[in-house]
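Notes, Module 5: Reading structure tokens.

Key idea: the token line is not a picture. It is a compressed description, and you learn to read it the same way you learned to read a sequence, by spotting repeated patterns. We will look at two proteins. The first is printed below with its tokens.
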Amino acid sequence: MSVTNAAAIISTRFAQADGHTLDGYRRTGGYASLRQALAMTPDQVIDEVKAASLQGRGGAGFPAGMKWSFLPKEVFPRYFVVNGDESEPGTCKDRPLMEHDPHQLIEGLLISCYAVRAAQAFIYVRGEMALAQERLAVALNEAYAAGYIGLDILGSGWSLDIVLHWGAGAYIVGEETALIESLEGQRGMPRLKPPYFPAAKGLYLQPTVVNNVETLSNIPWIIGHGGAAFAALGTEKAAGMRLFALSGHVRRPGVYEVEMGTTTFRDLVEAPVYGGGIRHGNKLKAFIPGGASAPWFYPEQLDLALDASVVGPAGSMLGSGAVIIMDETTCAVRAAWRLVRFFAHESCGKCTPCREGGAWLEKILRRILDGHGRHDDLDLLLDVGDNISPGPFPHPPFGGEDAVPFPFKQTTICPLGPSAVSPVYSSIWRFRDEYLLHIKEGGCRHG
């Protein structure tokens, strides 16, 4: 086990009492990168972000600079949207960024809007995050008053307006096209791609960039220190630092900023400066590497690096940056049911396989937990899952020719449907004996 000594980039103000204020932000170098960016051309800013190899931190991991380049040239108006609807179970890394360092996000958004020549931006925050909304609202007012937002920003001749918007607590609007629908005043439901790729037909059917909070929070550091300095951290395929929300059965759950690629899951779970090991000295049973929608991993995957190019071929994903630990006292059937219940409840209902199939999965699992399981329920669960996510699902053996990498196939518009299948397949594959014990005896050794 080894822990790198790379310095944090975006979480440095978390322990600073006034880090969320304009004075506290400027005292630690805030808005210097904006001035530096305004002295560059928009294309130079984009090139710097491309040189950093900054991958999106919202789940898909698409390179940010490349996404910006997809906007059609000379088509205006165009919009920039911040996805702050952090809703994935176990995920809590955008929330502290908005609560403890809102100006860092705003500066990153300003630089990004300048790079893509957008004059209007929106920050969409999850409805339940009251403190994040309050801190962002105050920070926006401070930035407007200081001349960082508005007309002729810092005398550059470039102007930008930013609107703060919060949702009503729907998980599905974390998907970028559903978020755009919600911003337009519609019910949050995903759009078909194609034709509704945001870069071509986004908000109000105009070219739109949608980026995650953590992604944009890295931009000021990249401009201030150079894209090459960011790319030098981590590895060639996993550059920079990243926040991981570690939860579950560890001694020190929390949000940790670690170096990508060189840090492993074992480091994150066992290192004293991070998770500190499994609680009560128990053994690891399984862990979810990238939020509740990700296929599960097991003890033999602990030494995999925090690198999407490694985790994907192994059959799962880094996703939202949430690592959920389950120790040997966990009932795999109950854990799967709780996750499936969430996704079934949060289905927007637009796609029949997700709307109906997710609810069926939840009911079957609940029946098994209640002691009324049937011997054919396991085949039924897999059959329903196959109708939502057809064909081979990511599952062990991990690696090699037989591995099925993420992303998985789906009969739904967005990945919410397959998200309900992940815990079902993962738990049945590894812990079939627990299912059979529930069906035979009405319970398991985990109570």
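Here is the second protein, with the sequence above and the tokens below, as before.
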Amino acid sequence: MDELFNRSDWHNFVQGNKKSLEEEIKKYNGNKLLNTSEDDLVKYFYDKYFFNVPEINESEISVEQNEIDIDVSRDPMRSIWDRNQPFYIKGTKITFYIPFSGEDIFFSVQPSHYYMKRISGKILNGCIIHSISSPDLTTKKIQSNIEQYLREINEYINTQRKDSVPYNNALEGTIRRQLQNRKSKLLANQNLVSSLGFKLKENSAMPTSYSAPEVKRKNIKLPPASSEPYKPEPELLEKDYENILSILENMIHVMERSPTAFRNIDEESLRMHFIVQLNGHYEGNATGETFNYKGKTDILIRSNDKNIFIGECKFWKGKAQYLKTIDQILGYSSWKDTKVAVLIFNRNKSLSTVIKTIKEATIEHPNYKKTINDSSETKFKYRFSQLSDQNREITLTVMVFDVPSE
């Protein structure tokens, strides 16, 4: 049997993992890094370097019993002249197979608090193998032995689990910061920083009559990516995206304050109200039902012949139709269309039920990646991958509104 928890002290183990993470990110292929979703890379490195401390599954312990020959030549009851020669008698060997989940490397690492009691055992195929043997084993002795052994093992790994908390809590932020630093250096070296975003030109003469009041390890697989030279593509700046969303939202507030004026409005008429407002702010660049990539979209904003925002206006017709709308807007999107929106209008149905269905259905979509935030009770921002390439990401905002018909 090997001695457990004795090969590396905790401090050196943690520092070694931090160094390995830093070096791996530094050496990661630059074009692949730029061509891969940042969230996917964060997840890959997080899964690889997360401290998954073992947990003992005591309910699945199994036992094996064998008869063996035991050398009792060192028995103090034997005369001093007989102790230099082997003397065997029959005895019993009990072997415990103790399954665990987590990473077996932790059985070679000393926790921050090192116990004087030495623990022996063998780690094999997700089990700790612990054996005891004696000529006179009894049930009481066996039970006492295994209880003490499990108690000592758990003391070590429980200390490791506590030691892991600050490391694991800081891991995602550490990875994202190192990736962003590496990406910034790569882009700076290629002189591409200026190509990362559009600044949309607003129309300063736009009247504000529609403006609403301001509301105060492991078998971890690398994400697939091309190693071809990275080609930057313009994207809509986040502040411009939020401004477009606020324009759409302000128009909705107008509808909510004047429900009778919009009681019998259809989807096409709804769309035109939004396009009028967007054209006022962005100098006639918003169009409706424009062909784009694989289909037509309700609202499209172009800048310098680039599609930089697309939106869909839909009345709520159930979960299946909602998922179809997501497919539709993902199908519209090309590489440059990185920020999109779906406006859902609800008529004569429970708004809370509609919202609950939307939240549940969205994360079921195969191209869903993560929830960015819920900025309000009726506005949700998500990250999706495009239909054709998981590294081409789309920010999708879903806004839900009541439009009464009675």
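Summary for the second protein:
- The mean pLDDT is 82.
- The radius of gyration is 32 Å.
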